[in-house]
Amino acid sequence: MEFIKAAGLGGILTGVVSLVIGSQGSRGGQLAIHLMQAGDYEIYWSWPLFLAGTGLAWGLMIMQR
Predict the structure, then answer these.
(1) Considering only CA atoms, which of 46, 45, 58 is closest in space to residue 8?
(2) What are the boundaries of each domain within the chain?
(3) For 12, what's the count of Cα atoms within 13 Å in the CB-facing half-sphere?
(4) pLDDT category, 28, cuts 50, 70, 90?
(5) What's the angle, vertex CA 13, arms to CA 8 and CA 19, rounded to 5?
(6) Are the CB atoms for 10 and 50 separated by under 8 Å?
(7) Spatial CB neighbours of 16, under 8 Å, sequence gap ≥ 6
(8) What is the CA radius of gyration of the chain?
(9) Pick the residue with more confidence: 50 or 25?
(10) Keywords for this entry (predicted)?
(11) What is the mean pLDDT of the chain?
């Protein structure tokens, strides 16, 4: 159950950080931020940042058990 909660938090973290960095015209180096189409919308997204954010949130939730 913690992993599902962590994936949501990782998605929020990724969305906020990618929006701030991507809207400035940067790719974020190793973060590999790119413009992704989701239906009629365009959002900035980074899979490496999503995986790192999810892992961090999951680790924190496991430690709080």
Answers:
(1) 58
(2) 19-60
(3) 7
(4) confident
(5) 125
(6) yes
(7) none
(8) 13
(9) 50
(10) Membrane, Transmembrane, Transmembrane helix
(11) 94
DSSP-derived secondary structure letter, 31: G
What is the signed CA dihedral for 35, 39, 20, 3, rounded to 10 degrees?
A: -100
Single-letter residue type at 42: E
CA angle 45, 1, 64 (to 5 degrees): 95
Helical spans, DSSP H, in 1-65 = 2-22, 47-63
Question: Which one-letter amino acid corresponds to residue 57?
Answer: A
- At residue 38, the 3 state secondary structure works out as strand
Using CA of residue 9, residue 15, residue 20, residue 21, what is the dihedral sign?
positive
The amino acid at 39: G
